[in-house]
Design goal:
Largest sheet: 2 strands, antiparallel
Number of helices: 7
Number of strands: 4
Helix content: 25-40%
Order of helices and strands: EEHHHHEEHHH
Strand order of the largest sheet: 1-2
Structural class: mainly alpha
Oligomer: single chain
Strand content: 5-15%
Shape: extended
C-alpha cells in the first residue's frame, strides 16, 4: 500500500491537525515515487485511455466560475529580472528549448517575393491547409528558407503556423504527406495499397 493509514488523532498535535482527523504517513521510500522511470511508466499506462463524457463534464464544471491562479496577480520587477536573466543565460549557452542556432537571422532566397507568396495563397484558395480557416501565411514545409519551390510551400493561418514551429520533424512529414495526397492524408491501409501499386 502506498500510504499507511493511522488511527484518528484524538487531540490536536503539534502539527496542527484537528480532532478526529485521519493522518496518513508517507512510506520510507516516498522520494523514489516520482523518478523519471516511474513517471514514464505512468505516462505509458495512461496513454490511449479516454475519459468518459461524464468525467469530462465533471472536470469542466469543477473549473467553471473559478479564476485562474495568476488572474489579478503580478510578478515583482525583481522576479521578472531574475526570469529574464535565466532565459538569457540559457540562450547564450545554446540550451534554450526554442533556440535553433540563429536560423531566424538567415536570409531568404531572392525567389521569396510577394508574387510567389500570392501565387501560393491563390493555389490554396486563401485557406489554411490544416484547419480550413482563412490563411494568409506561407510556410516552408522543410523549414529551409532557400527552398522556394511551390511543392515546398503551403498556406497556413497564424495559429497553425505557430503550431508548426514545435516538433518540426512531425510537421515536415505531415505537411509533405498532405501535399502529396492532395489535401487528404490516407489511412495506413490506403498508403500500403498505394505502395504496392
Amino acid at each position: 500500500m502506498l500510504f499507511e493509514r493511522l488511527e484518528p488523532a484524538e487531540q490536536p498535535s503539534s502539527t496542527g491537525l484537528k480532532k478526529n482527523m485521519v493522518q496518513t504517513k508517507l512510506p520510507k521510500n516516498w522520494h523514489n515515487l516520482y523518478t523519471p522511470e516511474i513517471n514514464k511508466k505512468r505516462s505509458l499506462a495512461l496513454k490511449g485511455i479516454r475519459k468518459s463524457n461524464e468525467t469530462k463534464e465533471r472536470m469542466k464544471n469543477a473549473k467553471k466560475g473559478k479564476e485562474g491562479y495568476w488572474k489579478g496577480r503580478k510578478l515583482s520587477e525583481e522576479t521578472k529580472q531574475k526570469i529574464r536573466e535565466a532565459q538569457y543565460k540559457l540562450i547564450k549557452e545554446g540550451k534554450h528549448n526554442l533556440w535553433k542556432g540563429g536560423i531566424s537571422f538567415k536570409p531568404y532566397s531572392i525567389d521569396w517575393t510577394e508574387t510567389l507568396k500570392r501565387a501560393i495563397r491563390e493555389r490554396d484558395h486563401y485557406l489554411c491547409q490544416l484547419c480550413s480557416q482563412y490563411g494568409n501565411e506561407v510556410h516552408h514545409i522543410d523549414y529551409d528558407k532557400k527552398n522556394c519551390s511551390p511543392d515546398n510551400l503551403i498556406t497556413l493561418c497564424h495559429n497553425c503556423h505557430n503550431k508548426t514551429n514545435n516538433n518540426r520533424n512531425y510537421w515536415k512529414l505531415y505537411l509533405e504527406a498532405l501535399l502529396t495526397w492532395g489535401g487528404q492524408i490516407p489511412s495506413t491501409e490506403e498508403s500500403k495499397r498505394s505502395a504496392r501499386l
